[in-house]
Structures are given as structure tokens and as C-alpha cells.
Design a protein that fits this description.
This protein is mainly α. Helices cover 73% and strands 0% of the residues. It has 15 helices and no strands. It starts with 10 loop residues before the first helix and ends with a helix. The chain crosses the membrane at residues 233-255, 275-295.
Length: 365
């Protein structure tokens, strides 16, 4: 080891250090010029030491504001803005595709093969018997369900992301297990919202497949179920619904967040506009609904068995019955092509609307 504490210093080094010392002392005593002050001010006091850019780099001015607001607001405000945005987004999306949704449910619960001609005939018969507004029959039950469902789903998704350690102010996350956590957050959000609103979903399905003479209101559905069936009837078909919502919600949120992540990485963190969010939501909806569609068929059959006269008591029994009587394509994937139209539209509108409304609410705070 070399001890340098007493090492000799050449005389020319001493002279040079004296010169540097006197120069720095004079500079330190001299006040900075106005131009220097302007440069320092424009860069801000933390420009030399702030490393937050590692988490949210190169954001545009409006995105910086939103990022800062989202990071600073309390969790209570995060929750209520999420509830409002999710409720409105869900209502807009479901009202838009309500006629196609009723048509899809009608084909799902009957053995009639799906066809475009059959879709047109069903729409024509509905308008003839019930008027144009008949296409939105059951939409009141849908709204009673989808408003709390959308509010709970989007809000709980953000909260589950926080619990799992994902970035809630930006979709950019380079952690190794980010993909798994995105899927888990979506699945848990779907389970949370579906569990809390399931009886409303069941009532909506029954109203969609019956005429006004059977159930004239959402209250009538619950009254008849309470009087003629049992408390357990309110959760009939819940298990296949839960098994279906795990991959559906998981794939929806996973695909949407992953697309946003890559978009912002590739384009320098530029925030996607509502049209891009709509497209990403549509892609997420198409992928998610294709993967979970057979279980959607089973749950609809079990939900409406009491009004159609068919027996669909268990998941396994329903799967066997559908396969035996209708086959794979005409049974488990009946109406899927219509779902590829209405599903991506609904999911795209809900994702884009939720983000747009939520961000504007938080900017106003």
C-alpha cells in the first residue's frame, strides 16, 4: 500500500493550484450574469440532480402535467374519479351495442344455427312486435348493471395495479414480471366487478330473451325469481361466469396496457390519442372475447334455463349437452362472428372513454 498523505508535491504544481484557487475564489465572489440566471431558471433547480426521468422520460408538457397530477392526488380522489369515468364509459359502450347484444344472447340460448339472415329476421321481428325501442329491451337492466360494473372494474383495476406494484401513472413498466402482473390485475378486476354485480347480469339476460309480457321491468325479474325460485337463483351460472371473466378481463387489460406500453416506447412516450386508444381497446376486446366465448355460451344457457325450459344445471353437464346436440362450431362458438363486431366496438369505446374522462377529471383537480 502506498501512503500518499505525505507525498511531496512539485513546486510548479503548487503554483498552478494557487492560480486555480484564486480564479475560483474570484468567480465564486462574482454574481452570475442575467443570461446565466435565465439558463439556470429555464432548466429548473432540479435539472442536474433529478433522476425521475428514469420513470417517466421525455414526456410532453400536457403529459407531464397529467403525470404529476396523477402522482400527487390522493388515493381517495383516484378512486372517485375512476368510479365516475368507469360508470360513464360503461354506459356509453353498452348503449351503443345494445341491439346487437340482445341479438347475440338470443342465438346463444337457442339451438337455431347462427346466420346473417337469422340476425336480420330477428331484428325485423323485434321491431315489428315491439317497435324500434324493442331493440334496446333489457337495456335498463344493462344500465343498472353496467354502470356499477364499469365503475368497479376500472377503479379496482387501478387499485389492483397498485397492490401488485405496477405503475399506475404510466403504462411504461420494464420490470420482468410486468406482463404477468398486467394479466393478474385485469383478472382480479373482472372477478371483483362481476361478483358484486352478477344478479343484475342474470336479470338482464332474462329480459333480453323474453317478451315484455313475461317481465315488464327489472324489479319484476327479481320478484318472480324470489317467489318462484330461490335465493341461489340470483347466482345461477356464476361459476362459469367467473371462469370466463378471468381470461376475458385478464386478456383485455393485458392486451390494452401492453399495446400502450409498446406504443409509447416506440414513439418516444407520446401519449396515444383517443382514436389510438379506441383501436387498442378493440384489439383487446377481439382477443379476449374469442378466448372466453365458450364459457360465455354456457353461462347464458344456465342463466336463462328457467325461462327456456331447457336443463343446464352444471358446467360439465352443459358442456356435454351443447357438444352432443350442436357440436363445437355451432354450439360453443355460435354468434362469435357477431361478437367480433360488437365486442371490439364495446371494449374500444369503454377503454377510450374511461381514459379520456378520467384524465380530464384529474386535470380539473
Amino acid at each position: 500500500m502506498v501512503d500518499v498523505s505525505y507525498s511531496s508535491v512539485p513546486s510548479h504544481s503548487i503554483a498552478a493550484s494557487s492560480t486555480v484557487s484564486s480564479f475560483t475564489t474570484s468567480v465564486a465572489r462574482r454574481p452570475p450574469s442575467s443570461s446565466a440566471l435565465s439558463v439556470i431558471t429555464s432548466h429548473g433547480p432540479t435539472s442536474m440532480t433529478d433522476k425521475s426521468g428514469d420513470n417517466a422520460p421525455n414526456l410532453h408538457e400536457d403529459e407531464k402535467k397529467l403525470h404529476n397530477v396523477s402522482a400527487l392526488i390522493s388515493n381517495a380522489k383516484r378512486v372517485w374519479t375512476g368510479l365516475v369515468a368507469g360508470a360513464v364509459a360503461g354506459a356509453i359502450a353498452k348503449t351503443t351495442i345494445a341491439p346487437l347484444d340482445r341479438t347475440k344472447i338470443n342465438f346463444q340460448i337457442h339451438k337455431e344455427p347462427y346466420s346473417i339472415r337469422g340476425v336480420i329476421r330477428f331484428l325485423q321481428e323485434t321491431i315489428y312486435k315491439e317497435g324500434v325501442l324493442g331493440l334496446w329491451r333489457g337495456n335498463s337492466a344493462t344500465m343498472a348493471r353496467i354502470v356499477p360494473y364499469g365503475a368497479i372494474q376500472f377503479t379496482s383495476h387501478e387499485q389492483w395495479k397498485r397492490v401488485l406494484g405496477l405503475n399506475v401513472t404510466s403504462p411504461i413498466d420494464h420490470s420482468e414480471d410486468a406482463h404477468i402482473k398486467r394479466f393478474l390485475a385485469g383478472s382480479l378486476a373482472g372477478v371483483t366487478s362481476q361478483s358484486l354485480t352478477y344478479p343484475l347480469d342474470l336479470a338482464r339476460a332474462r329480459m333480453a330473451v323474453t317478451s315484455k309480457g313475461n317481465y315488464d321491468s327489472l324489479r319484476a325479474v327479481f320478484r318472480v325469481m324470489w317467489q318462484q325460485e330461490s335465493v341461489l337463483a340470483f347466482y345461477r351460472g356464476y361459476l362459469p361466469t367467473l371462469l370466463g371473466v378471468i381470461p376475458y378481463a385478464g386478456l383485455s387489460f393485458f392486451t390494452y396496457d401492453t399495446l400502450k406500453h409498446h406504443y409509447r416506447v416506440w414513439l418516444g412516450d407520446e401519449k396515444p390519442n383517443p382514436i389510438v386508444n379506441l383501436a387498442f381497446g378493440a384489439i383487446a376486446g377481439a382477443i379476449a372475447q374469442t378466448g372466453s366465448y365458450p364459457l360465455d355460451i354456457v353461462r347464458r344457457r344456465m342463466q336463462t334455463a328457467a325461462v327456456t325450459g331447457e336443463r343446464y344445471d352444471t358446467i360439465i353437464g352443459s358442456l356435454k349437452k351443447i357438444y352432443r346436440e350442436e357440436g363445437i362450431k355451432r354450439g360453443f362458438f355460435k354468434g362469435l362472428s357477431m361478437n367480433w363486431v360488437k365486442g371490439p366496438v364495446a371494449v374500444g369505446i369503454s377503454f377510450a372513454s374511461n381514459e379520456f374522462i378520467r384524465d380530464h377529471l384529474r386535470r380539473m383537480m
